[in-house]
């Protein structure tokens, strides 16, 4: 079982920055892709950013030019650098990791516990 632990959320004024971290641990596995989602109460979870095994990244239109996703494969950690934050970025942010076990070839995915990001006007 792979567990994800998130950190870095908090309260920031509009225009400020935050850096989220998500560390994966558990059974031996290979990372297929890592990403970030966010969710506001009463709304569906929204995809924000992703980085696949090749290192290619992609972003939702709403965060392009402001957010940057990166990873440290040696540490099985993914980051989300959030700059020029806006009040509409306020949400609970969730890390997501898809992986394949080193032995057996089976694949699965895990979600982080979520970290609150609040952007004030």
Compact summary:
The chain is mostly beta strands and 121 residues long. It has strands at residues 2-7, 10-13, 18-26, 29-39, 46-52, 57-59, 67-72, 77-82, 91-101, 107-111, 115-120. The relative contact order is 0.33.
Can you walk through the features of this model?
Helix content is 0%, strand content 61%. With 121 residues, the protein is mainly beta. Strands 2, 4, 5, 6, 9, 10 and 11 form a 7-stranded mixed sheet that branches. Strand 7 (67-72) and strand 8 form a beta hairpin. It is elongated. The termini are far apart.
Secondary structure layout plus pairing:
Elements: E1 2-7, E2 10-13, E3 18-26, E4 29-39, E5 46-52, E6 57-59, E7 67-72, E8 77-82, E9 91-101, E10 107-111, E11 115-120
Parallel strand pairs: 2-11
Antiparallel strand pairs: 1-3, 3-8, 4-5, 4-9, 5-6, 7-8, 9-10, 9-11
Helix tally equals 0
Q: What oligomeric arrangement do these chains adopt?
A: single chain
**Which structural class do the helices and strands define?**
mainly beta
Question: Helicity level, as a percent range?
Answer: under 10%
Low-confidence stretches: none
Total beta strands:
11
User: Gyration radius, to the nearest Å?
Assistant: 14 Å
The helix/strand order is EEEEEEEEEEE
- Biggest β-sheet, characterized? 7 strands, mixed
Share in β-strands: over 45%
Keywords summarizing the entry:
121 residues, mainly beta, 7-stranded mixed sheet, 4-stranded antiparallel sheet, 11 strands
